[in-house]
Amino acid sequence: MELINLSDITVSYDGKNNILEKLNLKIKEGELVSLLGPSGCGKTTTLRVVAGFIEPTSGKFIFDNEDYTKIPVHKRNFGLVFQSYALFPHLNVFDNVAFGLKMRKIDKKLIEEEVFKILDIVDMKNFAKRYPRELSGGQRQRVAIGRALIVQPKLLLLDEPLSNLDAKLRLQMRVEIRKLQQKLGITTLFVTHDQEECFSISDKVAVMNKGLIEQFDTPENIYSNPSTEFVARFVGFENFIDLFLIGENIYEGKGENKFKVDTLIKKEGNIKGTIRPEDIQIIRDDKKENAIDGVVEIRTYLGKSYQYNISTSLGTLIINDFNDEVYKKGDKVKLYLPPNKIVLV
Ligand SMILES: Nc1ncnc2c1ncn2[C@@H]1O[C@H](COP(=O)(O)OP(=O)(O)O)[C@@H](O)[C@H]1O
Ligand SMILES: [Mg+2]
């Protein structure tokens, strides 16, 4: 049974354009789900609907079998951490974390116990007396997470919580967030535009485009089986070939090249095959199946590999080649597109 059920959520800020259009999302208890998508696609807006800052124009938000669509923010008891959700600068770490409990007029002794329990969880016990200006970015964000957790929320909402941190700290903090989330078993909705970050910590990922969820699946399935061109591009597929079905799992592209595609879902009509640059092989033998001739246009050095732009009858293909042999502009090559690496979108 799902804890969160967003159904047909539509949001418009100006009464004309819909920022979210009939968005649907179900999240099970204990899951960490990410909203992933480019800037402006509606991730924060979705989170605001869940948090209660925006009432949707239409649609329903069911939480734990209750209609929450019109429940005010302060009655939802969710933990919030936003990118710019600054700590209170005039309060020390202890008081920042205690804030949510002090609002509730709870016994002082009990507050102290609870705050230290949380500071221990976010590894900030020794910093209780420090002020936000005396902390690093990562420490501040840990305090912000502590402040969100102190009210024992049934749901944790994180909006790009790591985007103000430097690269190394971001890697470290995302592992910490995942560990913490699993330890507490807290259902979490995490917003990010960073694919790697999102894949590394999520049980499931909702890829968003223009106010809609294009695919909701495990990170593994999204990575290897994107269902639309948008999702494919977002997760690193760069080659798109127009194809049409001509036989059992056989597709033909421009130039009468035939490709076998290992796929469970047969698609007909105007479809595209897509393949990652690292999955196309430059081959020496004269294999015919799933192979195509090409000429090297551009070579770029990427450190671990060379990237080639290769012109073929299907258009220019981009290939990352990890082999020792290096080709130069004008070289004739043969390319092999393995049947199990071509995805239909
Ligand atoms: N308060 C607002 N008033 C009007 N338009 C807004 C407001 N907040 C966001 N938008 C617009 O809604 C769209 C989605 O924004 P947002 O949900 O913040 O996207 P994301 O978090 O994915 O970057 C953007 O086009 C943005 O300009
Ligand atoms: Mg945002």
Features:
345 residues; alpha+beta; six-stranded mixed β-sheet; five-stranded antiparallel β-sheet; 8 helices; 34% strand; elongated; binds adenosine-5'-diphosphate; binds magnesium ion
Query: Total number of β-strand segments?
Result: 20
Overall 3D shape: elongated
Overall radius of gyration: 25 Å
- Considering DSSP H and I runs of 4 or more, what fraction of the residues is helical? 10-25%
Nearest-integer average pLDDT: 93
Largest sheet: 6 strands, mixed
Order of helices and strands: EEEHEEEHHHEHEHEEHHEEEEEEEEEE
Q: Which strand order does the major sheet show? A: 6-7-8-3-9-10
Topology, element by element:
Elements lengths: L1 E11 L5 E11 L3 E5 L6 H9 L6 E6 L2 E2 L11 E4 L10 H10 L5 H14 L15 H13 L5 E5 L7 H18 L2 E6 L2 H7 L2 E6 L2 E6 L1 H6 L4 H6 L4 E9 L2 E3 L5 E3 L10 E5 L5 E3 L7 E11 L4 E7 L2 E7 L10 E5 L6 E2 L1
Helix pairs in contact: 2-3, 2-4, 3-4
Bound molecules: adenosine-5'-diphosphate (ADP) and magnesium ion (MG).
